[in-house]
Amino acid sequence: MASLQKESTGVFHIVFRFHGRRFKRSLETKVHSIAVTRQQEIEETIVLLKRDRIGVPDGIPAEEFILAGGQVSQIRRRAGTDVATNASSNEQLTLKKIFSEFFEALPEDSLELTTLRTMRTHKSHLLNHFKPSFKIQQLTGQALQEYVNARAKHRSQYVDVQDGVKPERRRVSGNTIKMELVTLGIVWRWATSASLLTGAFPNRGLRYPKADEKPPFRTYAEIAYEIESQQLTGSKASALWNCLYLNTNEIAELLRLVQDRQEDLAACCFPMVATAAFTGARRSELLRAQKSDVDLRANVLTVREKKRVRGRRSTRRVPISSTLRPILENWLAKHSGGTILFCEKSGVSLTPGQAQRLIGNALKNSKWDILKGWHTLRHSFISNLACKAIDQRLIDEFVGHTTEEMRRRYRHLFPEVKQDAIDSVFG
């Protein structure tokens, strides 16, 4: 009914649900026995409320009443004022408070860590413009348009600093601004469902700066030629390498490099890179993988998803290729134990940052150190299937694509395949 969580600071927090909402509040103590006593008081209060033995007084938020164990005097002392005035009224709900309550109400593991990190970054930009004390109910379409116009004048962070030289910063893109307001819209809609706000999110009719189309995916040779011929450096060159995909020979070359360096790398590095290359699994999916997901009898890998079906964990099954099978067999034979498939320590999952450093160290000071991460291997997996004219329905099943926009973004063929197609008709 209510559970305790000990934060890294040593302070205990209480987590409980009431009327379909999840609450997490600090108990302001590091003493376990005191925290347990508070937990019991809170659980007893929730039981009494559910049985209609007691009721929440007017003007007092239910969660505050429960947190105080049903003792109104405690709430008054904390607030330092008469609680008859509803402190959670729309007029008092600030932008900072609504974000805080949103993040506190999120169920654990409901969002990817990277998604949460991005949302918190969006929150920082919004608070910097509107200020933390901004009354959220006063938000209008005009205020949002002013935010768009102001953000469009900002410059992005430095990327790809080379030899201490910082490249020119680009203006914040329309897509970035739009995603920041998508985050605010998500928080707004949550607040309306929690009866903290009323009305629709006022974002209709907003105008954003024109965004450049993402560069198309290209081969290593195409990108290298364009960078050399145009003498591109820094962020301009980096943007092209972000769109790299490899053919089967290049994938084999990359894997040989990682295998040759295996003694200097984490034991899980080579099998993890190979699995990404031959299944198209995302980095987050590789980190979630369990040993039991590898079924060598059926010759399939079960990939645990979070993105394809909103609000629900889903899976997809990818056949294990004849090249990947012995790699996984060898890895499972010497696995250190635990349920996690790819780990440095028994039973301890890698963090996204550790996984990024893993592939970075594997490719460092080589031809392939221009790879921006694990997603290049996913691009390459899809591209090679498309070049062999594999049915799009099978590709969707293997990689979890669900929208036509995703398919169009990945629907590219190697230059020689396109050339052969033209020559077969007009050559």
What fraction of the residues are assigned to beta strands by DSSP?
A: 5-15%
Reported for the largest beta sheet, the result is:
3 strands, antiparallel
Order of adjacent strands in the largest pleated sheet = 1-2-3
H-E string: EEEHHHHHHHHHHHHEEEHHHHHH
Tell me the radius of gyration.
26 Å
Find the structural class using helix and strand composition. Answer: mainly alpha
What's the pLDDT, averaged over the residues? 85
Unreliable segments of 5+ consecutive residues: 79-89, 158-163
The helix tally amounts to: 18
Distance between the termini: 73 Å
The tally of beta strands, per DSSP, is 6
User: What coarse outline follows from CA principal-axis ratios?
Assistant: globular
Q: What fraction, in percent, of the residue positions are helical?
A: 40-55%
